[in-house]
Amino acid sequence: MDTNGAIAWDVYADTCPTRKILDRIADKWTVLIVGRLSTSKQRFGELRREIHGISPKVLTQKLRELERDGIIVRRVYASVPPKVEYRLTPLGGTLIELLDAIRVWSETHIESILEAQQVFDSQARDGEGEED
Amino acid sequence: MDTNGAIAWDVYADTCPTRKILDRIADKWTVLIVGRLSTSKQRFGELRREIHGISPKVLTQKLRELERDGIIVRRVYASVPPKVEYRLTPLGGTLIELLDAIRVWSETHIESILEAQQVFDSQARDGEGEED
User: What is the ipTM of this complex?
Assistant: First the structure.
């Protein structure tokens, strides 16, 4: 609480609920899922095909967490077989620009990063002790 | 490669090097470390104290990965005992605004998210089968 009685949320405090949300949002799967949902609703199988390397188990878990947070909505249509679609909520929509910027950053700076990695790997370094 | 011979980086492809970078940047510890380094250089112990809940092992690993990527620099001063400081590189500096926006989003929307979680948890739901 600050002096006005309002709660002072602080992601740097590990007991603050915002830390869990930071962990959910600052997550590669969240970036990729929200990215796919930013332009249209998607079925589970569509997401799984488009996000290479995600397992069905992890996708199910991520979708459920994002639904619980109010970031996406899961809608079931009473067809045979039942059709299930995911889409962003208005709250989820506020993440689009933010998370897309991270995708763009990764794709824009990858060459500088690969160069930096080569330089780093070519410089042998003595073992490092404890730091304080 | 696209038709111009340029490489078409794509974070949605799990074999693309950008996927690993996305994983490093879209990470709560990266958000918190870059946030601390955004205003001043920091010693290991300062980062450890200010980022509650991070273990020395994880902090060491994250700092080394970020150094290898060219996002931070580790400078050792020949004092007794040796002083080690971390600071952002110019490349790392391009992340500040981006990652701070994620921190701010988490702190801004936490109350809506906590409400959504309460609603979700109060709605019992039948077990869900496989989706496609």
Answer: 0.87
